[in-house]
Amino acid sequence: MKEKDNFEMVINLRKIKTGKRTGRSKRAIKFIRKIVLRHFNAEKVVIDPLLTRSISKNGDDKIVGKVRVVVSKIGEKIYLVRLAIKSK
């Protein structure tokens, strides 16, 4: 299988939004970490603070439905997850 050094993906957070209202942003971050661990066979996942702020921009209870992220390899089985910013 080809190495994934810089990969863009959309993560759907609908399951977290339909669940219990308290602590949704924390569960969303754990869910994103779990998705990256599973898809990239990583040992460690580093999440950018800008991504955490953009998920809970309306508060911890009102999170966004989907998030577009860029996953970059920074070391041996260590990945960085950043918010994908569209450019025109």
Automatic annotation (TrEMBL):
GO cellular component labels: ribonucleoprotein complex; ribosome
Keywords per UniProt: Ribonucleoprotein, Ribosomal protein
Example GO molecular function: structural constituent of ribosome
UniProt-listed Pfam families: Ribosomal_L31e
Keyword Cytoplasm: no
Gene Ontology terms: biological process: translation
InterPro entries given in the database record: Ribosomal_eL31, Ribosomal_eL31_dom_sf
SMART domains (UniProt xref): Ribosomal_L31e (SM01380)
Signal sequence coordinates: none
Family the UniProt entry places it in: Belongs to the eukaryotic ribosomal protein eL31 family.
Protein name: Large ribosomal subunit protein eL31
